[in-house]
Amino acid sequence: MTTRAVRLDDAVAHLEPGMTVFVPGMSGESLALLDALKAAPHKAAGVRFVGVHFPGINQSDYLALHPEATQRAYFMQPHLRPAFASGRAELMPLDYPGTLNDLAHLPIDIAVAQVSPRDEDGLMSLGPCYDFLPAVWQRARIKVAHVNPRISRTRGSFQVRAADCDLVVEVDAPLVTFDSGEPTPDLVELGRHVASVVRDGDTLQMGIGKMMTAVLRALACHRNLHVYSGMITGAAVPLIDGGVIAGEGAIEVGVALGDEDFYRRVGEDPTFYFRPVAETHDVRRIAAIPGFVSINAALEIDLLGQVNCDSLGGRLLAGVGGMPAFVQGAQLSEGGRAIFCLPATAGRGDVSRIVSKLGARSLVGSPRHALDIVVTEYGAASLRGRSVDARAERLIQLAAPQFRERLLAEWRDIRATL
After folding, report:
1. Whole-angstrom distance, CA of residue 153 vs CA of residue 10
2. Pairing mode, if any, of strands 292-297 and 203-206?
3. Which is it for strands 337-341 and 89-91: parallel, antiparallel or unpaired?
4. Cα–Cα dist 127/245, whole Å
5. Domain limits, CATH 3.40.1080.20, in the chain
6. In this predicted model, what pLDDT tens digit does every residue of 34-72 receive, in sequence order?
7. Cα dist. 146→4, 5, 34, 172, 183 in Å?
8. 3-class secondary structure per residue, 220-271
9. What is the pLDDT of residues 381-417, one digit of tens each?
């Protein structure tokens, strides 16, 4: 098929029952494509949608288009739960390298890329989102480029050639945006403790959300920091402006998440360089970075060091995503550290997130041997090289004071049966 300039409804007309259609997630999702599908929902009949859509960021419900549509998903989301129960949603229990491998071997009939306008060489940028599109693009039977003038031309290791596209659609449309929100006082204190174990010159990986905003703000007095991460938010901008992160390519990421002003900034500022998951989550690349520090959130941690990062009472909330690769890379890095941080309590302070042992329905996101440093608002504890007793003692000290005596008694019972 030669490259043709078409309207979005013309592109949607190519969908047929039995097809697998890749729709990007994160800040690369084409909201205009979803609107075009909503205008012709019958075209989703018998179509399997696939993409890495992140909870709290991507709200689009492709299964609502038609009762015969299906979806292959890598994170649980609220709107997927009914379809998962009925069998219309395939939930893949994979981390990011596993997801990459799955997509690299999945037959793709149509792949959609949201891109910047082409340059004089006919090249188009993926803007703020490079994560998984490169894994499927060249193998897709039909390549659809949604050229969106709101997409900034970013520096990165992958570009889309206009000549490789089968269909090109030019539509000015809103982008997926993300607001991390304001950290609570407890999270501000937690961020201060995380900053205390970060050294000048370290290279950081971190997730998103209020906790990570608090961590970034607490690093304002550091120097010569770098970022090598799956995601970055606008909370990093003050660190660039303050000279904490400086230099061309000092921030290497797969995805930027924020408002449209931030998306313009990542295109204009040479501090940012974008890479796909095949590069950002390559454990060998990560391990080769001296002083690599992974900073990830947890929901609960037990006294053996097992981490639950994505379930409550057995109810899956998301997936492990890119965390395992970064934790492994941090442990292999010279001077690297794997940090897990969490508020000490949940609810109104009546539930401890430091627990004696994960419950039977809790899901282990990171095993006990992968725990280096744990941080709550009560401090930071280094566990690497510690015995099981010393680890348990330090974890109990990170719990809210009202739970420490009970945790100590429960640890004695657990220890007796080890």
Report:
1. 26
2. parallel
3. unpaired
4. 21
5. 185-417
6. 999 999 999 999 999 999 999 999 999 999 999 999 999
7. 12, 10, 12, 9, 36
8. CCCCCEEEEEEEEEHHHHHHHHCCCECCCCCEEEEEEECCHHHHHHHHHCCC
9. 999 999 999 999 999 999 999 999 999 999 999 999 9
Cα torsion 182, 186, 189, 193: sign: negative
Domain 185-417 has CATH 3.40.1080.20: yes
DSSP secondary structure string for all residues of 113-162: EEEPPP-TTSEE--TTB-SSHHHHGGG-SEEEEEE-TTS----BS--EEG
How far apart (Å, rounded) are the C-alpha atoms in residues 302 and 308? 9
Helix residue spans in 246-349 (DSSP H): 260-268, 277-280, 283-287, 323-332
Domain with CATH 3.40.1080.10 in the chain: 4-170
First to last CA, the chain: 64
Residue indicated by tokens 């313009």: 264
Residue 292: φ, ψ to 5°? -85, 130
> What is the DSSP pairing of strand 251-257 with strand 226-233?
parallel
Q: What is the structure's pLDDT at 239?
A: 98
pTM over 0.70: yes
d(CA 75, CA 350): 29
Q: What is the pLDDT of residue 348?
A: 87
- Give the C-alpha separation, 342 to 355, whole Å: 12
**Tokens read off for 363:** 């899901």
Contacts 24+ apart (CB under 8 A), 368-371: 368/304, 368/305, 368/306, 369/305, 370/305, 370/307, 370/324, 370/327, 370/328, 370/331, 370/338, 371/301, 371/305, 371/307, 371/338, 371/340
Helix (H) or strand (E) holding 78: none
How much of the chain is in helix, strand and coil states, percent to nearest 5? 35, 25, 45
pLDDT at position 220 is: 97
Q: Domain 4-170: give its CATH superfamily.
A: Glutaconate Coenzyme A-transferase (3.40.1080.10)
Question: What pLDDT does 2 receive?
Answer: 62
DSSP helix/strand/coil, 77: coil
Q: Which residues in the chain land under pLDDT 70?
A: 1-3
